[in-house]
Design brief:
By secondary structure, the chain is α/β, with parallel strands linked by helices. It folds into 3 domains: 40 residues; 171 residues, P-loop containing nucleotide triphosphate hydrolases (Rossmann fold), CATH 3.40.50.300; 134 residues. Strands 1-3-4-5-2-6 form a 6-stranded mixed beta sheet, with helices on one face. The longest helix is centred in the C-terminal third of the chain and has 22 residues. The C terminus is likely disordered.
Length: 388
C-alpha cells in the first residue's frame, strides 16, 4: 500500500467492507487506518508533474485573476480554463500521432531527468490540420495532463481597427501570460501570423507580425506555448521557426474513424457491422464530421419501431444534409443501385465486408444479398458475351 494502484485500493476497500459486514470490526478498522495512511502519503508525495511545474517560473493563476482587456472596447483578450474544467479523455488519433503526442507529455513529466543532461522540454508547439480533426481538444488534453491552466486567446479578437492598438494588445497579453505558470493557447493562429510579404496586407499587419514574433522569442524561455491553425500556408516562415514542435493532425484512418464512432455512440449500442459501415462511409472525414453522423444515427434509433429508418436510409439522410462533408464517390454509391454499393463493400481491398455484414447493414438476409450480387455478376457476363 506504499504506492497502491486504483485496482489494489478497491480490493482493500472491498475486504474492509466484507469484514465490517461479518462483524470483524477490529480488522476492518485496521484496514481503514492503512487506507487513510496511504492517502496521506499520496498527498504529501510530490508527483513528477508537480516537480516539473516547479521548474516553470511565475505565479499561480487564481479564479479571480483579472485578464487584460482591449482599451478601446474593454473586451477581454483571453479566457482562463483550469485543468479541472477540461475533459480528461484522450483524443483519438492513429498510433504514430498518439506516440508523438506522448513524447511531449513524457518530456514534461521527466523534467528532472532531462535537466541532468542540460536538456529542457519543448516549450513551443504548433498544431495544424483540417478543421474538426481535434487540434484544440488535443491542446486542452495536454494542459490537463500537465495540470496547468490554459490562457485561451482568440487572436482575431486582438485585432483592433485603431492603428497601433493591435500590437499593444499583443504586448499586454504576453506581459500577462509571462507572469503566470500556464499554457498559452493561440487559437486561429493564422488570424495574425500571416505572411508579411502578402501584397494585400497593409503595413499595420506587418508590424503586428513583428510584434508577435518578438513576444514569442521572449516567451520561449518562460512557459509553454501552443499555436493552432487550420491554414498553415498563411503562416509567415519566421513564425514556423519559432515552434520547436510542428505537429500535423491528419484526417483519421479507418480504425480511428471506427473508434471515434464507438466513442460517441453510447448509450446507444450499435452492432459492429454498423460501426464499420460508418467508418467506411466517412472516408476522408474529420472526427467532428463523424461525431455529427453518429448523432444522426442515434436520433434515428429513438423513433418508433415502425418508423425507424435503416442504416442506409440514415446515411442517405446525413449525406443529403451534409453533401460537402462526404466524398462524392461514397455519395454516388449510396444513392445509386444498391447492388453497386454492396459490391464495392464486398470488394473493398482493406475492409471487404462479408455477406452477413452487408445483410445486417441493408436489413436483408445474406442469401438475398448473395442473390443480388449473383444476378449482377451474371448480367455483366451476359453483356460481355453479347459484345463479344
Amino acid at each position: 500500500m506504499a504506492d497502491p494502484s486504483a485496482a489494489l485500493r478497491k480490493q482493500v476497500e472491498r475486504l474492509r467492507d466484507a469484514l465490517t459486514k461479518d462483524g470483524e470490526e477490529k480488522q476492518a478498522a485496521s484496514l481503514t487506518g492503512i487506507l487513510k495512511a496511504a492517502e496521506r502519503l499520496k498527498e504529501i508525495t510530490p508527483s513528477r508533474i508537480e516537480r516539473s511545474r516547479a521548474y516553470l517560473s511565475g505565479e499561480t493563476l487564481g479564479r479571480n485573476t483579472p485578464v487584460p482587456v482591449d482599451r478601446e472596447t474593454a473586451a477581454p483578450l483571453a479566457e482562463i480554463i483550469f485543468p479541472g474544467e477540461i475533459d480528461g479523455t484522450a483524443p483519438l488519433f492513429n498510433a504514430t500521432v498518439s506516440q508523438a503526442i506522448g513524447t511531449i507529455v513524457d518530456e514534461w513529466t521527466n523534467f528532472e531527468a532531462l535537466a541532468t543532461v542540460d536538456i529542457l522540454p519543448a516549450k513551443t508547439c504548433l498544431i495544424y490540420g483540417q478543421p474538426g480533426t481535434g487540434k484544440t481538444r488535443l491542446a486542452f488534453w495536454i494542459a490537463r495532463k500537465l495540470d496547468l491552466p490554459v490562457i485561451l486567446v482568440k487572436l482575431d479578437g486582438l485585432v483592433s481597427s485603431f492603428l497601433g492598438t493591435t500590437a499593444r494588445n499583443i504586448g499586454n497579453l504576453f506581459t500577462f501570460v509571462n507572469r503566470y505558470r500556464c499554457i498559452l493557447l493561440l487559437d486561429e493562429f493564422d488570424a495574425i501570423a500571416k505572411v508579411r510579404d502578402d501584397p494585400q496586407e497593409v503595413g499595420e499587419i506587418k508590424r503586428v507580425v513583428n510584434a508577435l514574433l518578438q513576444n514569442l522569442d521572449v516567451r520561449q524561455n518562460i512557459g509553454f506555448t501552443i499555436g493552432i491553425t487550420n491554414h498553415p500556408k498563411l503562416l509567415d516562415p519566421a513564425v514556423w521557426r519559432r515552434f520547436e514542435i510542428q505537429l500535423e493532425i491528419p484526417t483519421p484512418d479507418f480504425e480511428v474513424r471506427k473508434a471515434i464512432a464507438a466513442h460517441f455512440m453510447p448509450p446507444v449500442k450499435a452492432p459492429d457491422s454498423h460501426l464499420r459501415m460508418i467508418a467506411w462511409f466517412t472516408e476522408g472525414s474529420t472526427g467532428a464530421e463523424i461525431e455529427s453522423l453518429v448523432r444522426t444515427y442515434k436520433k434515428a434509433t429513438t423513433v418508433r419501431e415502425e418508423d425507424r429508418p435503416g442504416l442506409l436510409d440514415t446515411l442517405r439522410q446525413f449525406a443529403t444534409l451534409n453533401a460537402a462533408r462526404i466524398q462524392s464517390e461514397r455519395r454516388a454509391l449510396l444513392f445509386g443501385e444498391p447492388v453497386h454499393l454492396f459490391r464495392a463493400m464486398r470488394d473493398d481491398p482493406i475492409q471487404g465486408f462479408s455477406m452477413a455484414d452487408i445483410g445486417d447493414i441493408a436489413g436483408k438476409d445474406k442469401s438475398t444479398v448473395s442473390r443480388w450480387l449473383g444476378r449482377q455478376a451474371n448480367a455483366a457476363d451476359d453483356k460481355e458475351v453479347t459484345h463479344g
